[in-house]
Amino acid sequence: MGKLSDRDWPGQFSDQRVTLALRVLETTDLHGQARGYDYFNDRPAPRRGLAALASEIAQARSEAPNCLLFDCGDFLQGTPLTQLWSEPGETADSHDGENPMIAAMNALGYDAAALGNHEFDFGLASLERALETAHFPTVCANLHASSDTPIRPWAMIERRFRDSHGTERHLRVAVIGVLPPPSLAWLETRPEAELSTSSLLEAMKAQLRLIRAAGADLVVALAHTGISPLPLDQNAPQGSAAAAERAAVTIAQLDGIDIVLAGHDHLRFPDPSRPSFAGIDPVLGTLHGKPALNAGAGGTHLGVLDLVLEKRKEGWALAAHRAELRPAQGESGPDSAAVLASSARAHRRTLDHIRRPIGTTAEPLHSYFTQIAPDRTLALTIAAKRRYAREKLAGRPEADLPLLGAASSFKSGGTAGSAHFIDIPAGPLRMSHLDDIYLFNNMVAAVELSGAELRDWLEQAVSIYNQQRADGRLRMLCDFAFASYHFDVIAGLTYEIDLSQPPRFRPDGSLNTAARGRIRDLRHEGARVSDTDRFIVVSNDFRLSGGGGFKQRGRPVSLAPEPMRVRDLLLQEIDAQQGPLRIDAPPIWRFAPLPGARALYHTGPGASAYLSELAQVGLQADPGPVDANGFLPLEIAL
Fold this sequence. Notes:
The protein is α/β, with parallel strands linked by helices. 22% of the residues lie in helices and 27% in strands. The chain is built from 16 helices and 37 strands. A hairpin with a 4-residue loop joins strand 3 (37-38) and strand 4. Helix 2 (80-86) crosses helix 10 (344-354) and helix 3 runs antiparallel to helix 9. The longest helix is centred in the middle third of the chain and has 18 residues, at 376-393.
């Protein structure tokens, strides 16, 4: 299969050959971004969201009359716009009861969509209610529900397209969806769970036999899973959490799959700046020679895949392709207007919701220094969790054990970009600030751990850092192969992080058995923690069920008959304050001294207003100029 240039597309094929040009368009990980609006900061967000992509979709369709539009999942969750729709009593008051993202996708005429893991954040009933009005099929082959749902393993799209000779041809395009099973493990632990998942590869193999028997001319994998840029994935055990989270390359090897549309990891493909590995060509846009796309996240890009199908004796065959990503240019044109109109009522209600006052804060709340210094947003979250856990454990044997609290930041840069930080100034607090601090519908959860298990948890959390050396050479502090939310802080302890040692865990969650570990001087109330000590740690159901590639550790401890959302606990914590919110965020951990070591920490440019906070905790950090990616680099002496 070759990749065609603009010069010879599609003229390299002789008139004697019967070919059909087909354009496939992809969006993925839109995360509730129906319109270009930043609901967390209550301001427009140009060149992102489905409305901004609408003109690009219209332009792409005008260039290629044989065109199909797909989404690869995680379209429902991510902004207060869709969060509010999912709340009890809100659905009927929104745009004719239609979910604003579904309404926007209907307006653009999607042909099919896969489900991502975050489609299930609001529960199966809410998801089914949203999908009831979808004008397109939704597919997921490795999801199993205990009741009937509108979700199907695959769908056959039948269209009549014209070939290179002007003859109308009947084309049967099958689309099959999958998502990584580990990403739903936390949901299966909830009392109302009606879902289970299975191996995405085994599910695809089983369904591919049925798809081919149904006479598909072309099979497109709508794979809500990433394209791994890391060679270490090739060493991950088959069927492991890591393999499932980044399985697009493996999916491309399956017989019967012609095209792979990927998502989940929020990384774009093709991308010439990405490294090439076995089976991955980031320039040509292929996985094991098969055309592939990943349009990133948030509606900033549209994936465009041009295919030439050649008619042969045995059927249609892929003869050539061309893959590209087109950036969103802004909201303009009739298609954009249709998307905006479809969510206009829900948008107005969301603005009223996010602007509702909930209190005041005496100090700014931000996440610019989450991986290098105390973070008030984490301290607030942990305080709310511990208060709730104390109430629920009162009078039970577990109340005699030390109660610790764990939290991580969902918005602290990394691969999500230089704008992905919390920045709430001192002063009035609104509902939008609460949504900004805690993006997800996670439930509070607790676990009983030994000292050894606690240390192991911390080792996995601090593996986010690159190894450092005392040789004066400047090195990146954080490894961007880890998501920023991998860095858990556990309050109620004190400890040091020795960055002279290699990380104990790899980004895929596998153990580096050769590493001795980084956690030093682990103490509780001044006493060293032994391997046999026992603790209760309150966290969330996502983390404790293995979410994000974390190991499941310890014995689950029930806190209440009904689950409680962490976001609701935060609102209670703010309500309980007398006067402006003042958050005690003492140092919990520190880097072990490493004289001669220099590390580069990348944060958002807004951090420049808060640099004095680092000096207050004894951290020397020298800022450099904002880089090409919008990050503010801080040079830190270890």
